[in-house]
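Handoff note, outgoing to incoming analyst
You'll be picking up this chain. Sequence as last confirmed:
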Amino acid sequence: ARALNAGFVKWATTGRPFVTLKAAVTLDGRIATASGDARWVTGERARAAVHRLRDAAGAILVGAGTVRADDPRLDVRLDYGEPVRQPLRVVLDPALSCAPDAKVFAGGGALVFAAGDALGGARGEREGVRIEALPRDAHGLDLGAALARLAELEVNELLVECGPRLAAAWFRAKLVDELIVYVAPVLLGSDAPPLAELASAAGGPAAEGFEFVDVRRIGEDVRLILQPKEENRPCSPES
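Most recent structure output, in case you need it:
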């Protein structure tokens, strides 16, 4: 029952959404070519599965770097027609550096979190896009504060699709409840960007450990579903 209602249970017990971080990687753990091209790392069936993940999410979050590099739409496109509800599109953009005509902002309704100093501490709206201030932390915007605000907006399930720097921030903060990785049977080499830019740790892992929940083939790729080990699971904001 808890697994079937993971989003609501997390929201009700901790005041935060259930966070799923999704990534598509190669066999050598790379998310794009050395030039930054992330298109078609995985096959068609894996990409369709990602849209089903989006359909189940209350919100999808990316960083400003992903918006600038990939210009994603962050909408849901399913084979059986348009869904009844599109998830909230959320962008972490500390300096408000994303172009107003980025696809993620098309049609309005998106939410941008920026640093308070970039907004003068005020909230506002620009061309139908809501802009809100968040405090900074050592690695960018305060992710815990972002989750608390999304919980206030009644987001139970948050899907994070981001680049290596933001992924590393989520791992360091121990805020990932579930990690879903689609692995493609190709190699891109050491110059290509990794899943997460984490500094090496002497004698151990650079971030918390995970355990496998499910491993299965999706078309020509493999999908891994992992959750933090018991001692590494996200805590409530008060703990």
